[in-house]
Write a sequence for this structure.
């Protein structure tokens, strides 16, 4: 069964940058879908006091208002994470955690930044020596070995499933799984050893990861630990797209139209670097929405 949909502009992220992009793109009469989970926005639990013309406003209220504004102009919202993005002849194919694929002419990345450190002993000292934050980037180094993925959302489950095709044994360390039924069913049907309700106490090894110590005291012998907390992040989604990042591989680089070096891909908000301010995110979202819509219209006219 074909489970694909065509859309002019797809937006990743439901924070202020993504919502403003959705408002401006939808107002230009193109089809818009916004993908992501509202409660994951850093604004959701914030209180706003420094945004022009607004004072003492709850972040979740602002997000809900922005969502309604965008919906009033025709934008659609799906509370799903994107697991993969593949270039197509006339745009990009986005595969979501429920198995749906969106064929988008233009793409706006407004996912914010991942603050996904565990903060446990050994994590920092063994980074690059068995500790990684990107399965898609480093997974192929662990062919035939035993590894663990730490996290309870889509990035962790998708990463663990990917690693079953590479590694000999895969552990998933998580508190309470927060994924779609589609991903949960794939996990249950696979070979991943799930440690639900577990937490990492330490990562140990001399010059290479040798074991993972759980809070329960259990020791898991392994050679690789992938920390994949939250939704699919920048590095995972950008790996196969050729998107230019800053020299430290943390942020997406854009021009004044919020366009990346890849045709049809735009970015806005914290994912483009500091300052971490809503005003910056909203402004960049506005610009990205306008030019992404213009790109989609131009492609449509040329077809």
């Amino acid at each position: 069964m074909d489970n694909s949909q065509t859309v002019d502009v797809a937006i990743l992220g439901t924070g202020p940058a993504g919502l403003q992009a959705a408002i401006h793109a939808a107002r230009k009469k193109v089809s818009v879908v916004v993908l992501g989970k509202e409660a994951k926005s850093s604004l959701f639990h914030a209180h706003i006091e420094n945004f022009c013309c607004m004072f003492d406003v709850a972040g979740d209220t602002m997000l809900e208002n922005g969502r309604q504004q965008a919906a009033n102009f025709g934008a659609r919202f799906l509370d799903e994470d994107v697991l993969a993005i593949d270039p197509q002849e006339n745009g990009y194919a986005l595969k979501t955690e429920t198995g749906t694929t969106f064929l988008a002419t233009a793409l706006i990345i407004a996912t914010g930044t991942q603050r996904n450190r565990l903060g446990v002993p050994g994590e920092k000292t063994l980074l690059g020596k068995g500790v990684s934050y990107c399965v898609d980037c480093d997974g192929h180094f662990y062919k035939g070995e035993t590894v663990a993925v730490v996290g309870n959302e889509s990035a962790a489950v998708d990463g663990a499933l990917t690693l079953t095709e590479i590694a000999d044994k895969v552990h998933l360390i998580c508190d309470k799984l927060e994924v779609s039924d589609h991903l949960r069913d794939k996990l249950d049907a696979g070979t991943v050893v799930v440690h639900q309700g577990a937490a990492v106490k330490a990562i140990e090894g001399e010059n290479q990861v040798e074991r993972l110590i759980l809070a329960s005291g259990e020791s898991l012998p392994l050679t690789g630990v992938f920390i994949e907390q939250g939704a699919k992040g920048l590095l995972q989604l950008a790996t196969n797209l050729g998107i230019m990042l800053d020299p430290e591989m943390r942020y997406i680089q854009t021009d004044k139209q919020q366009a990346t070096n890849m045709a049809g891909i735009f970015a806005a908000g914290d994912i483009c670097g500091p300052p971490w301010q809503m005003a910056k995110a909203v402004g960049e979202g506005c610009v990205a929405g306008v030019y992404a819509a213009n790109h989609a219209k131009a492609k449509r006219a040329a077809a």
In short: The two ends are 27 Å apart (CA to CA). Residues 123 and 203 are 6 Å apart (CA to CA). The longest helix spans residues 278-302. The domain at 4-114+233-302 is CATH 3.50.50.60 (FAD/NAD(P)-binding domain).
